[in-house]
Amino acid sequence: MVPADRLEHPTEARTWKGSIPVWHRYTAGIAGERFLRVLKEQGKIMGARCGACEVTYVPPRMYCERCLKPLPDASWKEVGPRGELVSFTRVYLDLDGEQLKTPRWVGLVRLEGASGVLLHYLQLPEGVPLRPGIQVEAVLKPAGERRGSILDIEHWKVV
Amino acid sequence: MMDQWVYSTTGLHEKDFETGRVLVETWKSKAEYAWDAGIAMGRFLEELRCGRLVGRRCNSCHRVLFPPRMFCEQCFRPTAEWVTLAETGTVMTYSIVHVRWDMVRLNQPQVPAVVAIDGASQGMGILHLLGEVVPESVKMGMRVQAVWKTPEEREGSITDIRYFKPIS
User: Fold this and answer.
1) Cβ partners under 8 Å of residue B41, min gap 6
2) Is A28 an 8 Å CB contact of chain B?
3) Contact status, residue A113 vs residue A83, Cβ threshold 8 Å
4) Cβ atoms within 10 A of the Cβ of B127, count?
5) CA of B28: which chain A residue's CA is closest?
6) Of the partner residues A1, A24, A33, the one whose CB lies closest to the CB of residue B26
7) DSSP B118
């Protein structure tokens, strides 16, 4: 190996390689937990509406982010399952930066009744070109397969 | 008065996840890294692979820094030259440990020690392990020498030295 002070190319420099194992555990919180439970058990997507700000949060929050008023149970209401495809793109890499075997499409959707958008997988329609503004619908997994995760929604389907 | 800002919390326990009382997402990441050793450490590691210890001399304060550095932290000047060092040294300080670095209980205690290497300036030491020694007999000031891995086993790492043993 060439001594470091006579290197001619950066790739000849010595590197020390290692890896740090990191385990994550994520809980959804009080509002998030209830959102996921309703999704799992009732197959409904819920939002929480702040009347003062006229904003419906999906998933629901415990309090309005804008005015900080609590959002009680009574402020919860169902949104979707249909909505508008606001934007979409094709994804080629996974979360660790590795190539996906099959690229996937994802879509940003504003569900009917929601103020914000939700990101999820998008099913490519047959013969219909994708463009912002088209109507989509959330397709859920069958009740028996749902486990209280955002992935209980399978994907958006163009209607 | 401050109580109005104190919200009750929800404590969670392992059982809550086991029984499914609380939904949880679990996943693992592999944070892989490649750390650029730089000129001084790069040479230091290469010399270790060759079975040698090197330091760097500062021509302003005349200290020999070990491990080597490309600048002197006292003079704020670049260091001037490589210095080949001995593989013997002196124990500056040590510990007798019964728990490994990753919290695993050890059956046989280990003796990590700071060893000042001959040829470097006073007190220029590195942390390593002592071996072939009875822990209770270790003393500060003890003279030790490096025990190396075979050339085939060495990879350019501080672990190319297995440990330091007392000079008999």
Assistant:
1) A14, B67, B68
2) yes
3) no
4) 12
5) A23
6) A24
7) B
DSSP readout, A37-93? HHHHHH--EEEEEETTTTEEESS--SB-TTT--B--GGGEEEE-SEEEEEEEEEEEE
pLDDT in tens, A52-108: 999 999 999 999 999 999 999 999 999 999 999 999 999 999 887 889 999 999 999
ipTM score over 0.85, yes or no: no
pLDDT per residue over B111-141, tens digit each?
999 999 999 999 888 999 999 999 999 999 9
N- to C-terminal Cα separation, chain A: 63
pLDDT band for A1, please (50, 70, 90 cuts).
very low
Instruction: Give the residue with greater pLDDT, A48 vs B124.
Output: A48
Which residue of chain A comes nearest to B155, CA vs CA? Answer: A16
Q: Please say whether the beta carbons of B88 and B69 come within 8 A.
A: no
Is B35 in contact with A19 (Cβ distance < 8 A)? no
Which residues in chain B have Cβ-Cβ distances shorter than 8 Å to A20?
Answer: 30-31, 33
Residue A21 to residue A18: CA distance in whole angstroms: 10
Give this prediction's pTM.
0.63
Residue at token pair 């163009």: A158
